[in-house]
Amino acid sequence: MTAPAQIHLTLPDGSSREVPQGTTPLAVATAIGPRLAAAAVGAELDGETVDLRTPLTRGGALRIVTAGTPEAGPFVRHSAEHLLADAVRRLWPEAEYDAGRQDHSEKYQYDFRFPRPFTPEDLERIEAEMRRIIAEDAPFERIEVSREEAARIFREMGFTLKLERLADIPEGETITLYRHGAFTDLCRGPHVQRAGQVGAIKLLEASGSYFKGDERNERLQRIYGTAFSSERELAAYLEALAEARARDHRKLGPELDLFSFDPLAPASPFFHPKGAVVYNLLIDYVRELNTRNGYGEVVTPQILDVELWHTSGHWANYRENMFFTELDERQYAVKPMNCPTHCLIYAKGLRSYRDLPIRYADFGRLHRYERSGVTSGLTRVRSFAQDDAHVFCTDEQVEAEVLRAVGIIFEIYRTFEFPEVAIGIGLRPENRVGTDAQWDAAERALQRALDRQGLAYTLNPGDGAFYGPKIDFRIKDAIGREWQLGTVQLDYQMPERFGLEYVGADGATHRPVMIHRAMLGSVERFLGILIEHTAGAFPLWLAPVQAVVLPVSERFLDYGQRVRDELAAAGLRVEIDDGNEKLGYKIRQAQLRKVPYMLVVGEREAAAGTAAVRLRSGEDRGPVAVPELIAKLREAAAARRVAEL
What we know:
CATH topology of the largest domain: BirA Bifunctional Protein, domain 2
CATH superfamily of the largest domain: Bira Bifunctional Protein, Domain 2
CATH architecture of the largest domain: 2-Layer Sandwich
Distance between the termini: 85 Å
CATH class of the largest domain: Alpha Beta
Shape: globular
Number of domains: 4
Strand content: 25-35%
Radius of gyration: 30 Å
Oligomer: single chain
């Protein structure tokens, strides 16, 4: 018999090992030492998660993941997912489990065919049963089976949902089952070694779902949970989760009277007067930056003939995300993006190299069809505006224009005090237009621009737009969560599709390069993120109400009104609380509304022409003369910072 080929593994300490092909990571861990093998929950090969029991078919950088490390989380949560399904079946043998979650970075979930919604009392029972299963400490087994054997197993169990899932697995792909105790499921893994390595669990909530996420399919019942190697890790996560819930823009938005939703316009926000103030101030800020950097603002139609979207490539690559209508027996589409309309404007005149770069900015409304299962507050909507812009330039101008956009993006993120910004370059996706040579040139141009500024970035294969590669900017908010915001995208395809030209210095015609640029991204989504970043306590320049005057009694309403009028005349957004409630109540109400400054006025203030200043944090700054107060608030608002009085 021929000996198996040897594969080369590099370990984290720099050492290497030659092992026979087909060796499992667990066998490698055991060879290193029994303590490592006992603590192991999974492995990574070249950064990809691998089950400890999976035979290795190639070499690479191998890391054994142990309990208690951050990398252990996805292995632990994926395994807890199976314990959840096992517990539900033990409590309700008639329940049929469907499938779990692909992303186990924070949570796990399972969908069930169950006759009613799960209640909070059900979740308590399931959690208790899961703890009993953890105490049993049954090993997880990985079992490779034929398609026929898997079908037989689930047919005998009466699991029709699993048979449909089995049919979705491509021919030739390895089919694996995972078993612990009496529980078996169709799963690719990876899982921990033993149920006892799932150290701490918490079920979070239950909701309805649809089979395969399709609203046309059967409605199922879903349970969400999380799990960690230890109770300490779980407690830290739940504390962070409580903070995130307190900041949730879907909760704070209505509480602060910023926006609402209505089922008559699904996933399309209604901005109330206070929300519209913030919304428009964000646009005004970007408009100011655009003007400073040579962008001309345009206004373009929202409904255009589908012929335009055939030309642009959206019909072939994006139509499932578009809304359509019919007029005069012709089909039209509601605009999901501004870029094709900007191409039409560019094409209206004869362009020379002396005209370039041409920069168009557009805040027009866009509409994209998002499935109801993925819409979420302001962060995933169907109706929105972008701080959108497109630059038409020569090849020689690409790097300078990309860097101009990158510079503006970093200025914006400094203004909003985002503590960290990470950059990634999205490379060609499988579904794309254009030649490989064009993609090579575009990807190199973006990398050269960032290299020129010494900016660190990661390369993300397959993450580009269908028409070109892109630079994405990810920020961390005040509680450490990552969000993708701005983007700069290079496009050689759309100018080609629209036949755009300019006359070069040589007298010949050339194609311009098109750069797509957004900095906030969707204004709606950015506002949702900003609400959570600030916990609804906007900086002074963005606050819908910057100050509220609080007369201590009805006797001082006239003076309070004069103070309010003076601040309003100076361009500040100010209100007066003229109710007859006690001062303490008025202060608490202003704090709940997140008003930056409370201006208390009584007998001493009326006599001295001052206002006693309190911050929304509760800090008392004492009396300040009204003219001085106005000057400081105006200065702070103009500088886009929080005033310090």
